[in-house]
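Issue: copy button drops trailing tokens. Both records pasted manually instead:
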Amino acid sequence: MVSLLDVPLRSYPARLTIMLTESIVSRYPRVMGKFKIKLRKLALRQGLLFFFTFSMVVFLLHPGRFSSYRAFEVFHIQPDLDKLFEAATSTDAWSLSNEVCPENWVKRMQESDTILLIPYRNRKQHLNILLNYFALYFQEGFVPRVLVIEQLGDLPFNRGLLFNIGYLETNSLGNYSCLILHDVDLLPVVPVSYTCSNTPVHMSSSIDRFRYLLPYEEMTGGVLMIPRQQFLRLNGFSNRFNGWGGEDDDLYMRMRTAGLPLQRRPPDVSRYRSLYHPPQDPSPNRYKILAEFESDGLSTADYRVESLQQFSCYTHIQVRFSSG
């Protein structure tokens, strides 16, 4: 008689099941004989299930599944920038209530042709950390003008519309040829160039929460640099994405339709640290909106400015969407 153990299986649970089956069948041949084939099939199924589960776990956790992107070593924050982060988050750090910037900031900021837009609501701790961090990060050389656009009201957060408002309101702040669209929870952890380019540049292609890997080729979220005239050419962001997600992918589609190439800097000069925040509610029907791809944007932004405050380090605008 051919033993069930002669069946070539690599799964230990399957082989253990087979051994128990052989033992039971040998002791009770009349009772268990008719179940022998069924038990053999069960053992095979268990073995296949174990193998499939193990393979899926390896596939999901292995960095190689990002096959179209280069995997590279995860570096720690550079020691000097690590100290900078500690200084920015200390209790005695410069805060939003303090209107005094580092002395060498103001002049260089006034001479800058770049404005950095930060969409914001109910994240005061993150905004404090980011502004403190910038005050130390831009100690020498280039300093962009900083504009914080705060959304008031109870409507879902609309990142794309806030960037559009930021662009429209810069007309009254000065002549800026370049925009940097910057999330409030991202800090550069390597020397990142914030000087303008002649095409859109995705500056944050290497973020710690994504294991410093690019999740997908169309990603433009996080920190994006774009010349002002090209942003106008795209009609900005869509205003229809209420909640988290979708507006940056829509912007990528606009760039592709307009024939604007998206540059992406190498991982070692585009590394960012993300500040923790609870998951946000996703934008409803965001995939449907992407499929429809309408050309709303700057030309259809509907809002009103509630207040505008000029500080020496940054400008703070509070806005309310007209529908709420």
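Record 2 (pasted manually too):
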Amino acid sequence: MIVCAPIAVLDSEFGSNAEVSITAQSPASWRLSRPPAAALPTALATSVAFAPDATCLLATGSDHTIRLLETHTASGQPWAPSIRYSIPSPLYGVAWYPLMSSQRPDTAVFLASAKDQPVHLYDAFTGKSRASYSCYNELEQLKGPRSVAFSSSGEHILCGLESEINVFHIARPGRQRSRILTGTKNGGKGRSPGVISAISAAADDSYIAFGTYRGHIALLDAQDFRPILEFDSGDDGCGVTQLLFSRDSRRLFHASRKSNAIVVRDVRMIANPMFMFTRDGNTNQSISIDMDVTDQILFSGGRDGRLTGFDAVLGRKKVRRVSSVSLSLSPTHFT
């Protein structure tokens, strides 16, 4: 599913005058031909996120728009956006409700965070905002969290700000929230100061991990949000851009900007990395990573425009690679 997603989106979003040719080289690789330059629009995708039931995906764009694409179209047909959500300021992130199912419309929602805006809970069927959650700083200024995530139960919404995490109950929109202070803004006394740039919740509801642009990573107890431990990212990067738990909640993956490393840690011995994968990631852009449904292959984009799969169990060879016109920094083009 992860490998097919960029191919399908590319096919749909180059425009009616473009031709995208996909040629199977082997069971483990594909080659995509470049469409005519005149067919490339100006808006670029910044991230994609599959719904938990895989019936649709969200694609955020550089034009401050979120597009929802349905994946159950007829075989060979391009994926076209069914709903567009226009946001008044730059987007920071989106997150699906973890228990989402298209068979239950009440669960078909996702979060969207943008600069100096409340976090909105959008309905994936109607495109309307069901609720909003507002984060304010000590000067009573509205701030959009740089990272946003659900707890694995879907009961809480986690918003990463500067040196603090705001926790909302999904049933209580507005500004009523709990604050978890992670450190002081001047870098003095405190555990993990800096902007909370990434948040991830373990599927078994045991841990919540967060990372900062200063390179700190910390674990919280998912039940009471009590801090457990904190450590440095241990790579050569300039700030954590993504954290990802494996589906069995036993491994934690993290990546940083301006770093070629993807670090894998066992949560039972988290202070020492299990192994590292190497990709072409020496850029200030955020290059995403994700696991496949088998929980065995870790996929990553790269500055070289390739999507690469790594054996996340044995930590050794690359098992799959996809070549495209540009899958990492500008993974697709929008009309």
